[in-house]
Specification:
Distance between the termini: 39 Å
Helix content: 40-55%
Strand content: 15-25%
Order of helices and strands: EHEHEHH
Number of domains: 1
Radius of gyration: 14 Å
Structural class: alpha/beta
Shape: globular
Number of helices: 4
CATH architecture: Alpha-Beta Complex
CATH class: Alpha Beta
CATH superfamily: Spore Coat Polysaccharide Biosynthesis Protein SpsA, Chain A
Strand order of the largest sheet: 1-2-3
């Protein structure tokens, strides 16, 4: 049995080492991971780097206004895979992406 492990990564202006951090996480031999990335209003390229990892279905990314490390961590806790808020946001994201592909408006 391989229980799902949730990893919360608060992100704020860490472009110089974010890629190394995320590569380390996604390349773990233990694969049953839920990787929650919380961009806390970064003003550098951190958000772009985080978005480049969305190819991995284990990665969930949320962007929020800057509120500090504790705020970002708490947001990550709310978005762990098995919680209702995560399911709701995932449905909204799919709906938004479908509208974007069809030329419609977003949320």
């Amino acid at each position: 049995m391989n229980p799902k492990i949730s990893i919360i990564v608060p992100i704020y202006n860490v472009e110089s080492y974010l890629k190394k951090c995320l590569d380390s996480i996604v390349n773990q031999t233990y694969q049953n991971l839920d990787i929650v990335l919380v961009d806390d209003g970064s003003t550098d390229r951190s958000l772009e780097i985080a978005k480049s990892y969305l190819y991995d279905s284990r990665v969930f990314l949320i962007q929020k206004p800057n509120g500090g490390l504790s705020s970002a961590r708490n947001m990550g806790l709310e978005l762990i895979h098995s919680l209702k808020l995560r399911a709701f946001l995932s449905k909204c994201k799919k709906h938004y992406n479908r509208k974007e592909k069809n030329g419609g408006g977003g949320l």
